[in-house]
Amino acid sequence: MTRRQLHLNAFLMTTGHHEASWRLPESDPHAHVDLAHYVRLARIAERGTFDSLFLADGPQLWSSVAQRPAGALEPITLLTALATATEHIGLIATASTSYNSPYNLARKFATLDHISGGRAGWNIVTTAGAEAARNFGLDAEPAHAERYARAAEFLDVALKLWDSWEDDAIVADKAAGVWGDDAKIHPPRHQGRYFSVEGALNVPRTPQGYPLLVQAGSSEDGKRFAARYAEAVFTAQQTIEDARAFYADLKSRAVAAGRDADHIKVLPGIVPVIGSTEAEARANERVLEDHIVHTHGVDRLERLLHLDPGTLDLDGPLPADLPPESAIEGAKSRYTLIVELARRERLTVRQLIGRLGGGRGHLTFAGTPEQVADTIGLWFGSGAADGFNIMPAVLPSGLDAFVEHVVPILRARGLLRTEYGSSRRTLRERYGLPRPANQHVLAPALV
Amino acid sequence: MTRRQLHLNAFLMTTGHHEASWRLPESDPHAHVDLAHYVRLARIAERGTFDSLFLADGPQLWSSVAQRPAGALEPITLLTALATATEHIGLIATASTSYNSPYNLARKFATLDHISGGRAGWNIVTTAGAEAARNFGLDAEPAHAERYARAAEFLDVALKLWDSWEDDAIVADKAAGVWGDDAKIHPPRHQGRYFSVEGALNVPRTPQGYPLLVQAGSSEDGKRFAARYAEAVFTAQQTIEDARAFYADLKSRAVAAGRDADHIKVLPGIVPVIGSTEAEARANERVLEDHIVHTHGVDRLERLLHLDPGTLDLDGPLPADLPPESAIEGAKSRYTLIVELARRERLTVRQLIGRLGGGRGHLTFAGTPEQVADTIGLWFGSGAADGFNIMPAVLPSGLDAFVEHVVPILRARGLLRTEYGSSRRTLRERYGLPRPANQHVLAPALV
């Protein structure tokens, strides 16, 4: 049996995950709309034999563009361009179940899966925030539970659409003049609470059957959803204890839902800041912190914590009377993580902004390549992770440093593939997951 | 002043526009989901210095896949992949105003325009048919006038979104820590009959400002819409007289709407079937006709004419008591064109199916390269066309034949560019159109 190996995902974000990264001399402030920038990043990640790369997304522009690069190319479109510039790496796009229709979105992912030869993944989000809602005819954000109920129905419809062609529906009998077999087309005829979708998808079943299903919400609703649908989960965890608890909880929920624990991969985020010595790594981290504009950080933290503008004191602690997570309609689990981090480490608002500047709640780790590899190996080896969501503070240099210096150590330790090889081609194969059967085709044993 | 030259658009459709093209030995019946097939076509068109290529679309699968290749990759996604495989040619995707939301669609086209360096075009359709409606939560197709009212509001919102960033909104002042100028961001704050869209697009203004706006409806509603918004119009015309009348009508409508007649380009469709002699061309055409399955043709014609199944007699004429165009909620002008063609030429249903098999109502022309070039030159030179929508009966061979044999004649006659050159880079520049001003920026003379 093959030894268990890490799954690595490169989480790409313009000039890097650190909010001040765009201010460094090396950074291009127009990178967010530059295809060549993303092609460069994708090729670095492919050099590092990553399983996949990933783009976050939300269908809105934040209220101010002053603070840092705002806006982004639409992920499915951008990843299609990257599909043609790469050969092996998986391509995971974020898309919202609240602000798309199942027919259009299922079709776009099917198209990306065909074009990329089976490398498409969908990070399923329900999209928090009133800004997005107001771009789609709503006055306010739908309630958290409502968004997840819609998401579950969306997934059911999308799965019906992706299975609406059997794999062998195309007959292509030129002599008889018969192209397809209508008996192998299965229109969803779905009538639900949120959606009515009558007809079959107008794209044949794809190399993967459907895109790898990814999820990143860690609220109670989010975990329930992940246990039912997700094949990979991105999560923010600050301590190995929390990560172990999350990992065990999610795997057991998946088993309770009748799934194989091995068919849901858990990838915590890590923001590595690498130096050839620990002191150099810390100095690199300080350069980034020195570029933070603290008034911007206060704005953003107040938004994240749902506080009125002007509530926070830069050199004081967080207020003692913050509302409980249950009162938050937005990103619930991130809220709790940030509040707990500030209280556990007794951080001032200024210190908290410094800690969040790099990873918005994900684990930031400054150290040598060996130290980064040690941490990854420790979490991977002790039930806290199946792999990692690598979130470089600065791009492309931080990804390049990871691939140049950390990847060789992981390979030498047998934790990471040394090449893609030819036997596994699809994204789902890279993650060690089976190709899903079509819901309309009985398993051979049952026929 | 430069001599007026043809604008050529390559209308790509899987194995070709002839319904039986997929049955030829040369054709790949899986071409419709094969990126390499489309890359090959795009590169042939670019060799022929075409202005653009184009994909039709509808968000539904027809009720039977037996007859010929059904379904298609989503056009914006596919064209994004083609953007990376080409350098010069424009990329026009069809998308529906009835079954998309303005924020998502405006963003996708903005993304394609950035990725392609200003080569995006949008063929605006309102999407006829109940099949599509039932994939998006509706029981029946919205009325024709209702679809066009929604389309007009959709365009107004999309234009607001594309103009929501001024061209110089990105300041990128690293030293001061200021990335963008909030005063140059203009949220639409649109509250209309069909849409409410509050916030700015999350993509900066694009190389072209917005995609080239293309339209192909020739009904009364369609022409009114085109006169107001369209920069290029695809149209089906069977005779040069009809084409001249359409051309003159559309230009005068545009002028009446306060536009420059030269800023709306009219491109009739032509299905060239080429042979080295006229007899060879006719023989090529007959091979295609011999592959038509007539029962399929009857089904399709009954659908096009909104007749009950079993109404038509293969060897009789069309029924005398067909309803008037005003009673048709679908593709109105195509309906009238087909009925008039059958009556003018006294065609049986079988003969009509043969005539429609290649171009679904577009002008089918079998001849030598010189004859094809003569017809193109005649229409172009006598007020019937600004260029042509080239619709090869078989792909890729028909496009290749056009580029190899007709294009050199057009170039020798000074009717077509011999190379793309470096001064015009965007699709709008190729069509001889100005880059649109941002609606939020006063013209210099007015400041």
Number of strands of chain A: 13
Largest sheet entry of chain A = 8 strands, parallel, barrel
Spatial ordering of strands, largest sheet of chain A: 1-2-3-4-9-10-11-13
Give helix and strand order of chain A, one letter per element, not per position: EHEHEHEHHEEEEEHEHEHHHHEHEHH
Portion of residues in beta strands of chain A equals 5-15%
Question: Could you tell me the radius of gyration of chain A in angstroms?
Answer: 22 Å
The CATH level-2 architecture of chain A is identified as Alpha-Beta Barrel
Task: Tell me the overall shape of chain A.
Answer: globular
Tell me the name of the CATH homologous superfamily of chain A: Luciferase-like domain
CATH fold assignment of chain A? TIM Barrel
Fraction in helix of chain A: 25-40%
CATH class of chain A: Alpha Beta
Structural class of chain A comes to: alpha/beta
Query: Largest protein interface?
Result: A-B, 77 and 77 residues
Mean pLDDT of chain A: 93
Number of helices of chain A: 14
Count up the domains of chain A.
Answer: 1
Weakly predicted, low-confidence segments of chain A: none
Distance between the termini of chain A: 31 Å
Domain Luciferase-like (chains A, B): 28-384
Organism (chains A, B): Streptomyces afghaniensis 772
InterPro entries (chains A, B): Diverse_substr_monoxygenases (IPR051260), Luciferase-like_dom (IPR011251), Luciferase-like_sf (IPR036661), NTA_MOA (IPR016215)
GO molecular function (chains A, B): monooxygenase activity; oxidoreductase activity, acting on paired donors, with incorporation or reduction of molecular oxygen
